[in-house]
Structures are given as C-alpha cells and as structure tokens.
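Ticket reopened. Same input as before:
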Amino acid sequence: MAKRNQLENPVYTEMEEKLNEVGNGMCLAKWTQVTLQLQTGHNHSCHHPRTHKINTKEIARNPSALHNTQYKKLRRREMLTGKRPEECDYCWNVEDNSDRFSDRTFKSQENWSKPHFDEIVNQDWREDFNPRYVEVAFSNACNFKCSYCAPAFSTTWMQEIEQHGAYPTTDKFNSLEHNRVENKMPIPKRDPNPYVDAFWKWWPDLYRDLHTFRITGGEPLLSKDTFKVLDYIIDEPNPNKNLNLAINSNLGVTDNLIDKMIEKLKRIEDEDRAKELVIFTSVDTWGDQADYIRNGLEFNRFWDNMNKVLSSLDRAVVTIMSTYNALSVPNYSKLIDGVYDLKKTYGSDDRYWKSALFLDSSYLRFPSHQTVQVLPQVWNKTIYEQAQLADFYSIPAFDKQFHGYSDIEIQKIKRIWDWKVANWDQKEQQVKEQRYNFGKYFQEHDKRRGTDFCKTFPELESFYRDCLEIKL
Amino acid sequence: MITINNVANTWLIPSYNRNAVSTYLLNELIKDDFEIEVSVKTDWDKFKKSKQKYAGVVVLNGLHFGIICKADDLGGRLIAGEVWTEVNGKNYNEVIQVELDHNDKDTDWRDIKFTYVKNKSITLETKEGKKTKELSGNIIDYQHAYLWLGCCDNHLSAPDEYRGNWFGKVRKLKVKGKNKTFADFDFKRKTRYKIYDESGNGNHLMKKFINEKGHVMVF
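Engineering reply: fixed in the latest deploy. New output:
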C-alpha cells in the first residue's frame, strides 16, 4: 500500500524499504531497545509487545540475557527470515490497515538504531547485542500510590491491595490475580533479586555502548541502585560522554534524597560526563486536586523541588509527564500557567534542550473509569480552552531565545480533546460502565485513604453523585 | 493597555491558526457583516514626524480595509474607514472619514467603531458623529488577509509607503462577526509574544515576527 506521507518523508520511506529488503517483519528495535523491569524480571524491546519473563538460568550464564533472551532471539530470527513476529501485531495492524508508517520504521530510523543496521543484519540471530536505548526499573519501591497506578509499580499500592484487596469495580481494579497469572509479582525489596545482580554484572560492558539510559521505577530515588549508577558515572575515569541520561522521579521523596540526586547530577553536568541530563517527573493538575490524583504528593513541596532542580542544575531539562485524566480537567489551566512561569524563569542558552521544561500531556487510557471519556460533554469546552491557553503561551519558533509552549506541547493537549469528543460503536454503553466504576472506585478510595472527593473536586461533585446512582 | 511606539511593534491575527485551536477563523469573519470597536490614543506628533500619509489602527491588509488615521498637507487630522470594491473589473477605494477639530489635541481615549455590512455599506462612528457609505459593488477578495493592529500591512514584502505604521496606545479592541464575537481584548493578559483573546475563540493577537525567509510567523 502506498504511504500517505511518502513524498514528505523520504527518510522513512528509505528506511522502510531497507527493512523490507531484510524481511517485511524486520525492526531494529528488537536489538537496539529494551525496557527492563527488574522488580518482576520482565523485559520487552519496544513498548508494543507484551513483556516476557527473563530466564534466571540464562542470566546466571550470561547477564546480557536480561535483554538477549532466548525468547527474543527467536523473534529476531523470525525477523531476519522474512517473518512477522506475532507479538509485534501493533505494527502489522497499522501497516495492513492504513497508509501510515508503523513504529518499526520510526524506531529503526532513530539515531540509536539506524547506525547499527548493517551490524545487526549481518550477525547471526544467536548473537548477543548490546542495546543502545535502555530503560530500567530496579524496583517497585514507591512512596506514592497514584490513583491510576498499580502494585507492580508501587510498594504502597501493593501494601494497600494486600490489606484491602482489589477495588470493587466491575474489573476488580488492581487485583493481584493478573500479576500472578502473568508471573509479574514484584520481588520484595528485602529479598535478593537475581535480575538486579545480573544487571550489575552486565553494566560495565553495557554502559560503554549506551546512547540513552533512563531509570524508571517505582520511585528511582528510593532505590540504592539509582545512586550506584550515578556514582559509577562520576567515578568512571573514561566516561561515556555520548550518554543521554534520564531519571524519573516523583520529586516527592525526602529532601536529603532530592539533594543527593542534585549533587550527583551536578557533578555529572559540571564534568561533562554525559551528553545531556533529563529529569522526568509527573503531575496531572494543580494544588489539592493534584495531591488527590497522585496519593502521596504534596503539591507545594513538589513545585519547590522542581524549582530547586532547575535552579541548581544549569543545563538539565525537566519534562513533566502529565497523565491527563478525568480529574485533571477542572484545573489543568493552572498547571499550564505555572509551567509557563517556570519556562520563563529557567529558560537559558545553557540548557541541553531548547526549553528548560516541557509539559508532556498524554491522556490516560487505563484504568478506563478514570479517563476523560467518563466526563459529561459539558467538560469538552474546558479541555479545548486549555489547548487555547497553551496556544496563547506559544512561541514564534522552537528556539532557545523564546520561552513558551512548543507546537507539540499544544497539540498534545488538543489531542486530548480530539479523543474526548471521538465517537465509536457502543461508546455510550461502555461509558455507562466506566461511570459506574468511577463512582465505586472513588467511593472506596475515600474510605480507604481518608480522602474526600466532593471536598477536593466540588466541580465534579454532582457528576460523582450521579455515578454512584448508576445501576448496571 | 499596550503602547505601539515603533514600527517593529505591531500585532496581528492571521487568516489561519497554526495549532488549529481557533473556533472562529478570520477568513470566516470577513465572509459576512462584522464590526470593529477600538479605544485608542493616537500619537499624532509621532505620526506626523514619520512623514507617512496614513497609519492603520485596525486594518485587513491587501488593499486596506479597516480604520485608518490620516494627515493632510495642511496639518489636518482625519480618521477614516475604508474598503475596496470591484465594479466591472475595476477596483474602487470606498472611504468615509471624519476630520478632527483643529483645537482638539486628541489626548483623551478615543472610541472608534467601524461597521461593515456585507457588500452593502461601511459605517464609521466617533465622538464627532456617525457616517455611512453605501458600497458601489462587492468587496475584493480578503480571504488571505491578516488583521493588523498598529499598521496597515507589515509583511516584509509590503513597500514602506503602504505599511502605514501607527503610533499610540490601545486599551480595548473588540471585533464582532454576525451574531457573535470574533475577538475581544482588554490588553491585561499578555506575554512578550501574544495578547489574550477574552472571547474564548482563541484568536490571540500575536506580535509580528519575521522569519529568515522574510515571512510573518504565525504561531
């Protein structure tokens, strides 16, 4: 099928053709990218396929099998012999049902993939390959239990579910049954973790080849392994200066941990031990409402810590990964205002990127009971006005001399509205169930956590009460 | 309030919206009746020193369409409403204007209202009175025009004599289309690059920036 953007994207066309010469299921990300969930011993290369379990016997022999699992090597063989691995069906659906490039083309074109094309296609499928783009979670230790998160990523969530069980929604939200079935029960922090041990055996070799390394969690600052990575980079006589280093943090841990992170990143920054430093954090709206969504957050402390990070680190960049959900809607405009102020305050020519701070607004998809879809249509306008507000703060060009919102930041907010107003078959029926679950979930949430939905979200009180009246 | 005191300091609403968040585009507005209400203090001394014959207060560019200040060779000061029409293949400049009293220093806030009735008439209202002119024909095509505040046209390609740079202060601007507001500015909420549109349509005024290719940047 001819690609719609063929003329506009000769680069992607060329990459797709090159991949198809090897096989129409070929994708470099199967070699170059990995997300390691060491707390459960799972990985996947590219976020589309489901994660798979890492074999402890394999990593005992070969720590790079954290990435180069036998399972994955078989998928690589399929790719090199013209087959399409079934687990990559996300891309096959895109390619077979639209005129768009799929993610295998985009990911293979990335500068952490493309330069390794020849090496990958010329080596035997059994060979190991060090990934260039690595995301790692060392543990699920987290002091937050965000309303949309899960026990696999938060120890406080795990404690709550172990104590009270799943939430009384129709889908038994955050039941541990799924984790057991998928073999994804996190290894408790106190227990030995063979995956983390293997990681540290592999690390000296992996580090040299890395293009991007991002530490996720849980809350990474609660893991000693995060600081071990930073210390390694600081102590390394011959650091990998091409490394893009990123750390996720909720910026809601104790002051000494925040200060410790800043101190170490400052050394890395000052001594040019990395190509760039990015801190990914999260907040989904403003003030008390943000605290409610991300249980454990103290908004004012969080904001102070963002200021502290940006004022202490002259070159680092902060990206706010905002999970825009139903509870974000009433006051998201305040967050847009606040982030704009920080952009103005901390924008500088010295930053690694063109803006000191990014607001990356992505709409929540799961759990479905908390997405913007559950809200009545009357809220559509509010979301649209937030896109217009970000557009008000837009800049003539995405350049260090201008401080405001880039097109992509604006478009990502607009996309939330697009999704909110979209229609599909049986939407009404689905939304009814989601609203039922919305009521059940937050009623139980208030009971378990001592919160008060109606007091925190007076704008949504009548909607919430209506949800509680729904009978399925 | 904003002050426009140099030729670089002009503002505009483009005919399209780069991020597609406007709910009422300029090229929709001009398909039908509309009116412009503005409250200004014109810096007549600076205007005269600039040696320009006319200066745009709020104007659609191309063949100028909107509110324009003028000076004549005898020292007279005029406020005009203008549009161009096409009749039998020829373009006509349709003008109504009021002359300021010689004794009027015009230092207080001045409200000006310009009303366009689709292909029929233009009306200008000031404290001096109200004048209406029936149009000779249909107006020319303004579909791709930008609405400028503080000049007639500041595209880089516009010759200096057609730019009509205006100097003074603006405290209020409201543009209304048929039955609904298009844009509304009290000039209280602004960034270095934009002035907030209170109408809810997302038609924020943007400051003129010219890119490397010489085009006005729409952002």
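The first helix of chain B runs from residue 26 to 29. The first strand of chain B starts at residue 2 and ends at 4. Please confirm and we'll close it.
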